[in-house]
Amino acid sequence: MTSAADLKQSALIIESIDPSACRAVTGFDGFVDEMISLVGERRSLDDYTPVPDIATFGSLVSASAGHSSLREIVVHDVHPGGCAVNLSDGLASLGAKVECFATLGEPVHPAYREIAAKCHGFHSWGREPGRTLAFEFNDGKLMFSSVKQLAEFTPDAVRGFLANGAYAKACADAQVIALTNWTLYPHMTSVWKMLQREVFSTLTHRPHFFIDLVDPSSRSAEDILEMAGMLRDFEPSGPLTLGLNGNEANILCRLHGLPSAPADASPEETLRQASALRDLLGISRVVVHRIRYAVSASEKASAAQYGPYCQFPAKSTGAGDRFNAGFCTALAHQLNDAHALVLACAVSGFFVRNGRSATHTQLIAFMHQWAEGTLDSKP
């Protein structure tokens, strides 16, 4: 854990880096999230009361059993989504040169316009993005995702996208290559194997690889074990960092016969878990981030870091992707595990308080506030 003095030292080191010197490639998931309110009672064209909470929604659904029912919805916002897209936003906002390759639609869905403008390159590798209907209530969200179209993301389809050479060229220039959302793409293991053979093995330098699986609870044990077994195959092309949250780490541990960590696990317990997974999987680093802290276990060192906790976040969806953006930035600049965790926690902490990704200047100011203890727990 770092002291206030250590945080200040990290802030000075991170302040000295040139964000534009970071070159990253991200892929491959793109989603469009529609934020929806369910109308309880409408009084006029502009005046309605939304259904307040999930329990009330549930009672409305139950009352409809045995006969038809109609409810009005209001789509009040459309957000760009997907881990690769969010990661690209976090990196590009800091100043990195990002090439994003994802299922963005043909043509690219207009929801991505603002993020696309930040990126050095924004390439659609799919005719239709994933789609999520997010029903918002006072006590949470119910999200319904349409992902059937993501089954079109096959090795043959990706090989067709590779034909113009843009991805191979971007990877040849990249310090970090990030691969996100294995879970919702049924052919992703095969895609990764193909990319290892046809792109990554041809690189003449050794970029960092960063993988975020996304919660694999819905996938079979056989699929998860096959994927986990081939992660070590990235290492000949470059060191691999596997980024997990607490739930994802427990799933991998359980399937490999390792002890799980409880919800209230200490940083020391989580660090032991990350180290055990790293050794078992045969990769360079495992990072596990929880709500209040994160740990990193690498070949050379290990570290743990409490984050700038926010009790009432302005936005929490996408916070993990911004954490990853910070960590990938640290990888590109060869920061050690301790400084990398500080940077990642700061990028995530800024996002949950402000509902947007930080620029480099905004992040440094935020880090100094964090070190000085002047951050409020509220946004």
Observed structural traits:
14 strands, 5-stranded mixed sheet, 23% strand, globular, 9-stranded mixed sheet, 13 helices, alpha/beta, UDP-N-acetylmuramoyl-L-alanine:D-glutamate ligase, 379 residues
Describe this structure in words.
With 379 residues, the protein is an alpha/beta fold. The chain has a single domain, classed as UDP-N-acetylmuramoyl-L-alanine:D-glutamate ligase, CATH 3.40.1190. The chain is built from 13 helices and 14 strands. It has helices spanning 4-16, 54-63, 83-94, 113-118, 155-162, 166-173, 188-198, 221-229, 246-255, 267-281, 319-332, 337-354, 360-372; strands at 23-27, 31-42, 48-50, 73-81, 97-102, 121-124, 130-137, 140-146, 176-180, 208-212, 240-245, 285-289, 293-298, 302-306. It has a nine-stranded mixed sheet with strand order 6-5-1-9-10-11-12-13-14, sandwiched between helices. Strands 2, 3, 4, 7 and 8 form a five-stranded mixed sheet that branches. Helix 3 packs across helix 11, helix 9 packs across helix 10 and helix 11 runs antiparallel to helix 12 (337-354). The protein starts with a helix and ends in a 7-residue tail after the last helix. The model has no long low-confidence stretch (mean pLDDT 94).
